[in-house]
Amino acid sequence: MEKYTEVIGKIVWFFSAILMWGLATTVGLPITISLWLSTTFRDVFFSWTYVYIIQFFFQSQLVSLRKKMFQLLQKNLSSKQRSDPLEVLEIGIGDGANLPYYPDNCKLTVVDKNKFFEPYFRKSAKMYPHISYQRTVIQSAENMMDVEDNSMDVVVTSLFQCSCEDPDKVLQEILRVLKPGGKYVCMEHVAFPKKTVGFLLQKIVHPIWYLYSNGCTLDRDLEKKIKQAGFSEVVCEQYVKPQWWMFIARHFIVAMATK
Length: 259
Hints:
Layout (H helix, E strand, L loop, with lengths): L1 H23 L4 H9 L1 H38 L2 H5 L2 E6 L14 E6 L6 H8 L6 E6 L14 E7 L8 H11 E12 L7 H16 L9 H6 L5 E8 L10 E8 L1
Parallel strand pairs: 1-2, 1-4, 2-3, 4-5
Antiparallel strand pairs: 5-7, 6-7
């Protein structure tokens, strides 16, 4: 049954890749051109589609991974960190999908370069009064100049490292803003193993996926990047979603790195 599902996934996504290219260059051509020409339109388009379409289809499949991410964090916090207020920075928070899983003692600062996510996040934040919201910084994660050195106990990212321009620079910025012994936790989708049909499909669909997903890059080896960034310790768990309709982005990591 598992092999049958795997074959179905490959076939569906092969034809989906063709369909994506076909729609993007025919009936969807005005949108494709607008996304290519205007970063503002790209930000508006992606924030709306992420909240009302992508989250609708995928959020239920990612709940378990979000929970695992915060369980991994809690497991590795010291007793002092569990009791004292935690200075937390979430980068690329979107509409706040991680908020239900935050510990009670968090003081949350947000960095997101897409200002059009802010109304969606503010609406979500009202539902979780146990989190002490501090501020939102509209800034690129590659240069978080408004976040001080050694100021954060925890940095969080989820489904973000795929779409930043330079994940290596982002990781160096995370190291800079973390306090000594601070934790970076993430849940990210990653590339298929090289020389597989899945990796080939990711390459084929990449140009259109990148444009419509506001910079999402399917084929990054983020586990390797995190391990090479300079953290003192890295714990990384790999997960593969079995659903055939998630075939193009089914490999995930949940990781925790200590400064």
